[in-house]
Amino acid sequence: MSRFGKTKNDNISMSKLEQELGTSELRYKYLCNMILTSIHSSILIINKGLNVIYANKNFLDKSKQAEDETISKKIDQVFPPVILSYTLLPQRIKEVFESGRSYGGQQMTYRAPGLPSRVYYYSLVPLKDSLDRVDSVMLLMDDITEQVRLGEEVRRAERHLASVVESASDIVVSMKPDGAISTWNSAAERISGFAIRDALGKYLSDFCQEDQKNKMESTIKALNSGRKVSQVELNMISKGKNKILLFWIFSHMVDDEGKIMGIVGIGRDLTERRELEAQLIQSAKLASVGVLAGGIAHELRNPLCISSSAAQILLESPYDKKLQKECSEKIYSGIKRASHIIENLLRFARPSGGCLDPIKINDVINETITLIAEQIKLQRIKIEKRLSGNLPYIEGNGNLLKQVFLNMILNAANSMENGGTLTIITELFNNKLVGITFSDTGCGIPEENLDKIFDPFFTTMPVGKGTGLGLSISYSIIKQHNGAIYVKSTVGKGSEFIIQLPAIK
Amino acid sequence: MGNDINILVVDDEEDMCWALENILKMEDYNVVTTTSGNEALKIIKEKAFNIAFVDIKLPDFDGMELARLIKQEDSRISIIMISGYYYKDDSDIQKGLHDGIYLTFVGKPFDNVEIRKVARRALELSKR
């Protein structure tokens, strides 16, 4: 638009100039010449016969033509035929003469001999006399080579960025400041099943799991009101109605003045990672089932042995009613005990579902202790429980937490080769965290190992004894529960593991 | 044959003690039971026993060690190890047998007849 404006102004000043020239005022002629010479556009003035009657310095320089090769020459002698047939310049000039209206906004590529080709933006402006008749037509050519080159570069960078975004395996979605979706990459289409046309103009919360819509909305709102980055795990519901676990990183786009232009969200599909994690947890669990098996076998054989002996005594004493009753009771309680042990182990070995329920942490600890009581007794380890009576519920998966606690107890037992005491404490911190402390009187952990114990495969146990996965898996389970795990240890005195889990308000 | 024969049973499970007591009482043996290793050592100081059934895994004692101490106290006692944890061919069990600390090993669960048989055999061997 501004270009048109400029052209119009030129038009006015030119016709004025012409009037002034007509009155032969040399001062104006001089001024006019000076303007035309120093202007950064190429200017040609063409008469009705399509002869060039004026060419400014800029044109002559750019076209590498002398003045006498240009002035008084026909337009088709000044421009190469290729350009003329491409731009239809003579015809356009004629049209301007006839209509008296400007013609503009076209591009022309012009290559002067021996020079690299340049791109011009040209327009044709009618120059009118005092009777408003078109006297001549001015061809105004702005060199836009550099702009075109920059434009191409920008487009190339844009294409490059777009292909990066498109080929990303993560969801990349950009939103207007209010959260309305403005771009949706192919990973988003693939993962969610929703095509770009289904997503544009909608809100990310529209695609979220019902009970997480609010959290998504508040996350976007917080970004919009100035928060820089936020990371959050929120699930999407795909077009096929499947739940997709996504880890989101949001940040906002700002303009040069720092005003928020929009929001970008990158969502990573955690489904596969979660599956692998679950598999790892399950295999580690089976490994600890292996550790338990020795103790379990012994534990099972006692009630089995009692039941079997009692049954035989029953057969051997047909007349002693009192003994018969006693035998029946022993058989019954022995079988009950054996099936309880098996039940406990099977419940533990079963793969855990992903869902979190309100649970009582003390119950989980007691069940874990039942599972391992025999093993612990054999190692001459005393368990001292100091469980707080009024703990709030926590949100968790009992089976997964059992795995963590079992791991804590087994580790403590391993550190107390010659027996000792394991103290298990539960308590409430600040009314919002439930703390579970396992403190043993074992060998302790050397300081140089303290920062490695949560690493996968780190173990000080002999090959084949420990997998080195116990603590790293405990760590990831506690993380999944939004909790934390700490360790304090003194070599020769013992270790203390503190687990903190958020209480349900 | 029974009344003058004294048998000690050491097992941390009370029901296990109950079972062994009833199995052996059928042969009219005098049976004393205890769930503790330390208690067992006290009992043998007060009374002479022909046979001791010792569970290998005791909470306060390693059964093998207890057998050795009992043998030290009274070498005439025939010791029979019982366990739900070990197998007869385990090297630990074989070593004790070889060293003559105990007479034999019975794995849990067992047949009542087997218990009475090993007791009888222990008495026969000690008579020679």
Topology:
The complex is a heterodimer of chains A (505) and B (128).
Chain A (H helix, E strand, L loop, with lengths): L1 H21 L3 H13 L3 E5 L5 E4 L1 H7 L3 H4 L4 H4 L2 H7 L1 H11 L3 E8 L7 E11 L5 E10 L1 H23 L3 E5 L5 E4 L1 H7 L3 H4 L13 H12 L4 E9 L5 E12 L5 E10 L1 H46 L4 H29 L7 E3 L1 H18 L2 E7 L6 E3 L1 H18 L4 E10 L3 E8 L6 H4 L19 H11 L3 E7 L3 E9 L3
Parallel strand pairs in A: 12-14
Antiparallel strand pairs in A: 1-2, 1-5, 3-4, 4-5, 6-7, 6-10, 8-9, 9-10, 11-13, 14-15, 15-17, 16-17
Chain B lengths: L5 E5 L3 H12 L4 E5 L2 H10 L4 E5 L7 H11 L4 E6 L7 H8 L5 E4 L4 H16 L1
Parallel strand pairs in B: 1-2, 1-3, 3-4, 4-5
Helix pairs in contact in B: 2-3
**Rg over alpha carbons of chain B:** 13 Å
- Number of separate helices of chain B: 5
The N- and C-terminal alpha carbons of chain B lie at a distance of 16 Å
> What is the share of helical residues of chain B?
40-55%
Structural shape of chain A:
rod-shaped
State the secondary-structure class of chain A.
Answer: alpha+beta
Q: Helix content range of the residues of chain A, please?
A: 40-55%
Number of domains of chain A: 3
**What is the overall pLDDT average of chain A?**
85
How many alpha or pi helices of chain A? 17
Structural class of chain B, please? Answer: alpha/beta
Distance between the termini of chain A: 62 Å
